[in-house]
Amino acid sequence: MMKESREEEEAEVLPQDLSAAEVLPQGTDKTTDFIDSALKGLNPRWRNWVVRGIFTWLMIFLFAFVVYCGPLALVLLVFVIQIKCFHEIITIGYIVYKSYDLPWFRTLSWYFLFTSNFFFFGESVIEYFAVLLHRNNFLRFFVTYHRFISFSMYVAGFVAFVCSLVKKHYLKQFTLFGWTHVTLLIIVTQSHLIVQNVFEGLIWLMVPVSMIICNDIMAYMFGFFFGKTPLIKLSPKKTWEGFIGGAFSTVIFGIMLSYLLLQWDYFVCPITFDTSSNRLSMECERHPVFKVAEYSLPETLDGLFTLLKIPYRKFHIYPFVLHSISMSLFASVIGPFGGFFASGFKRAFKIKDFGDIIPGHGGIMDRFDCQYLMATFIHVYYTSFIRLHNPQKILQNILMLKPEDQLHVFNLLQQSLVDNNFINITSSTL
Amino acid sequence: MMKESREEEEAEVLPQDLSAAEVLPQGTDKTTDFIDSALKGLNPRWRNWVVRGIFTWLMIFLFAFVVYCGPLALVLLVFVIQIKCFHEIITIGYIVYKSYDLPWFRTLSWYFLFTSNFFFFGESVIEYFAVLLHRNNFLRFFVTYHRFISFSMYVAGFVAFVCSLVKKHYLKQFTLFGWTHVTLLIIVTQSHLIVQNVFEGLIWLMVPVSMIICNDIMAYMFGFFFGKTPLIKLSPKKTWEGFIGGAFSTVIFGIMLSYLLLQWDYFVCPITFDTSSNRLSMECERHPVFKVAEYSLPETLDGLFTLLKIPYRKFHIYPFVLHSISMSLFASVIGPFGGFFASGFKRAFKIKDFGDIIPGHGGIMDRFDCQYLMATFIHVYYTSFIRLHNPQKILQNILMLKPEDQLHVFNLLQQSLVDNNFINITSSTL
């Protein structure tokens, strides 16, 4: 089915002659000689199954190993993936628009990647570790002027771009400038949200990432065995049966995985810098969503339960498990649109895959198209529904002020608390 | 000179046949019948001078009037300009890629404009007026879930885009998706920075906007009368003489304008919501940069002054005036690159102007290309070098917490102040 639709498209008339697929390395099933010889006997279709399966498990184990190595290793992994995704998309632009002779194009793209990472990553690190950074004079300079330094770096790139413009390439240069910036918008901003999710606690990375993987696999399985009704023209392989089966499995899987991870503080505690021990800490008083809570049945269901003579009226559950259902639903209903978008993009530019780095899968971007959208959802969900105004963090902001300003805040706050009768002052504190 | 280089370019071979200029309304000198008949006798070159001059002054008066109407009128003006700029750039995309039959393209572009404004404008309003918004239950809901609502709206647009994809238009649709997003990145994010500048005090809008206008006019004047040495190929009319003369004039003008505006609190006070009188307030204790300060000569100059027998060793000046010099230098050295970028863009797509709304000037975007870059610079400059951690603002953050958390912060802060010997507690405060 995939094959036919591909050939049909080839006949399409496009404004430009796109032959990117001939130049761009495309996904293959080629692996190491060892595996290749072991699989020689299989027919190509099953060969793809096996290769794809092996590398799926390999990636899952690699991910588990990085999680085991700790949050900083994870942040590093996010960076490596981000750089590779950027490389894949920029290479496509480079080939599609035949930009081999554009002056400075590659250098500028990488420079903009560096600049925007410097900015976003700096903002995250400053937000989470300001107190730590403030101890060192050299770093304090970077914290204070971080935005100015980032902006100056960006402006230098912008001026270099304007200076690199040459008459006969104007159109290509502006197209690729736009291409680079849309890529940065998609990859860098969203990677930075992933990093922030990691800082808030490993569970905010583990659960969503696993949900997308589970949904991908289960939708594929259900589609393979039961698929009949096509879902969307963009991805002819996708079926309604796969979509629904995937969603159902992801909800169940999400609940189970959440229960499992909730057993360790390691996964639920945000990463903070402990000033007393002078090191990163992953211990905490658990956030209420990670503590078992009692829920009562809604009144409407209550009547039904009485009728059926079911004695239970209350149940105990981790609130996070209930949240995991919203997340699973997003992962399986909206998540696939990230994939459809990527499919449409690949078709628009007549390529089959973003690259060929993972045998059986294609490029890194082929596997991460939905992950980025999911990470943004998790970030927004977390900041909207989960994050509490953290007294400790507000205190940190105050402690960065000059002593006289700290006192000023203290006095204002005391006044306000007294005015509202939250405290009584029996004697002066100063 | 302009004319020749334009024709030369026409011969350039481009991958697509771009004839946007034939379809897109281009800048003309056509005005009202009244002015047209009054200027009938002039030759075209001088006619352009007069029309351009009239409308320059008209815009300056309009701007002054809006400033007189107050900050909310200014914010409204920023919005109107933003929408018109977006419209101009999107129309160019629409024509260049001959996208007349793309399903939903215009609707989706405007929807994304609305969504991103909802997000950014909401973020600004929440940052500055959270206490006011928190009083009303309905608005409180919007404040709490603002990011989630914005994200859901964006995702709805994203899903609609994916669903609107049709095979024969894939390439155009993705190109225009990118086009829309780059436009949003340039126009919406920077407009939102302008709005934030206005909230910090009118002077942060007035001075930079006037500097760009002054630099434009003076560079044109110096270029017209003394210009000999071409500056950059992109804008053949620009000369080194105009560039240097413009920079020099802008520095002088910036100093004078700053001195003038510093006489009124109206220009230097941030816009705050006064909870006691229940209305917007533009009164304040002036920020130190707006108060006259004493500066001593650096020691190296000191020796020179002794030699020359100049008795002055100290001088009194508003620190803002010194800052205005940095801003003037940015406005006249880097600012023009915003214009070069816009010139390059217009040439890439073979158009003379972004539109024809202002007689003698072209489109709105033709006049605002440098203003946006300048506004971002001012925002970064303000946050890096001027903004003080405002005890009042930190207090607001604390007062939005639940009473028990307010008390918790209070106790933590008290403890820290006691530990550091900033206060002595003579008796318990609770």
Main features:
17 helices, mainly alpha, 430 residues, two-stranded antiparallel ribbon
Structure explained in plain terms:
- Two copies of one chain form a homodimer.
- With 430 residues, chain A is mostly helical.
- The first copy, chain A, folds into two domains: 2-390, no CATH class; 400-430.
- Helix content of chain A is 69%, strand content 3%.
- Chain A has 17 helices and four strands.
- In chain A, the strands form two sheets. Chain A has a two-stranded antiparallel sheet. A two-stranded antiparallel ribbon of chain A has the order 3-4.
- In chain A, a hairpin with a 4-residue loop joins strand 1 (272-274) and strand 2 (279-281).
- In chain A, helix 5 (71-96) runs antiparallel to helix 9 (170-199) and helix 14 (319-348) packs antiparallel against helix 15 (364-386).
- Chain A is globular and about 80 Å long.
- The relative contact order of chain A is 0.11.
- Chains A and B meet through helix 8, helix 9, helix 14, helix 15 and helix 16 of A and helix 8, helix 9, helix 15, helix 16 and helix 17 of B.
- Chains A, B: Its EC number is 2.7.7.41.
